[in-house]
Amino acid sequence: MTACHRLAHGLQCAVSVAAQGCFDLARNGVVLLGIAVLFVALVFVARPELRHVGELQLFDLLHRRQIAAWEEAQATTQATTQVTNIPRRPPVTLPKQLPKPQAAVAAWLSKKYRVAPEPMVAVVAEAYELGRRTRIEPTLILAVMAVESGFNPFAQSSMGAQGLMQVMTRVHSDKYRVFGGRFAAFDPLANLHVGVRVLQDCIRAAGSIEGGLRSYVGATAGDGGYTAKVLAEHARLRQVAQGHRVPTIAPTTASRPQPTVVPPTLAWRAEPTAGVAME
């Protein structure tokens, strides 16, 4: 055997040994990974409190990434209204991080609508921030969410209204552009921002809260009791925020009436004539 043949045979053997080693290493790695996943699953089953802590950390991570993505979008997109300007503040995920009135509202809503406290806290905190900037009472915003979707971020009506605020996505798809497109309709905070902007448009164009609510739900005549339900829940939430004890009666999520006309984006008036200032 010539030297070249011996060299080629040696290289072939080395490559074969290296490939077998890599295969064994990958196989052992997969086995170890499977064992680790099984161990973690067993720990979470045996220790529910650890699973709860993990869920909180995951929610906090997703919330931080969402805010970072929105801030990046804001840096490259011209905002058209104050509602879409995302504030630079740390995410809120625990009741103790809220002022006392907001914490009371979050706890009451969480109990009444059977929603986990952590996402409810985030929604309440965002509603209060948007209320401050739009001069719409945050309890009115929360009341709209309660009646529209019962705080189900994945709710969808037969007419195509979607998300927490049941926004007509096909009508207001342009408002979701800053949040990444129309599929953000099922993102709770994105839907909240767009819904508040639509509600603000409706109130200003109608000249009153009652008229704005009727326009928001798309009612051309009667609204099927929608406005009364929203205002009743709004009144209860105001009492909760003021420290009063309010019973958590069974939730009644009103379905939207079948509108004959879906309201387009309403024009802003030169001077606002409606909107409730926060107390």
From TrEMBL:
It comes from the Bacteria. The keyword Cell cycle does not apply. This is Lytic murein transglycosylase-like protein. The chain crosses the membrane at residues 29-46. Pfam families: SLT. Keywords: Membrane, Transmembrane, Transmembrane helix. PROSITE patterns: PROKAR_LIPOPROTEIN (PS51257). It comes from Candidatus Symbiobacter mobilis CR. InterPro entries: Lysozyme-like_dom_sf (IPR023346), Transglycosylase_SLT_dom_1 (IPR008258). CDD domains: LT-like. Residues 132-216 form the Transglycosylase SLT domain.
